[in-house]
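B., you asked whether I could sanity-check this one before it goes into the benchmark set. Here's the sequence:
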Amino acid sequence: MADTTALAATQAYAKAINNAVGAKGPAEALSGAQELTGPSFAEMLAEAGGTAIENGVNAERISLESVTGDAGLADIVTAVSNAEATLETVVAVRDRVIQAYQDIIKMPI
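And here's what the prediction gave me:
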């Protein structure tokens, strides 16, 4: 059975990139300095996940403050709106990842 963990997918993606770069001529291949600039895909996902969690926690905190009367209506609406937008984004990305995975599985070898 195929390994479907996120780590295995990331490793397979990195191997495919390395194979593609290796297949190019020296003039077309990226230099080592260009490859190492910027965050990795896993780091970007971790950052996006952390931001999504922070938005949810903030919305819950402000909701609790509204119960005690410490938060204004504008704060509550803003926090809930941000949490809703974050949730919709996470769900959309999840759906696209699942669709991409299914498309890859359907590809002939």
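One thing to flag: The chain has a mean pLDDT of 78. Otherwise nothing jumped out at me.
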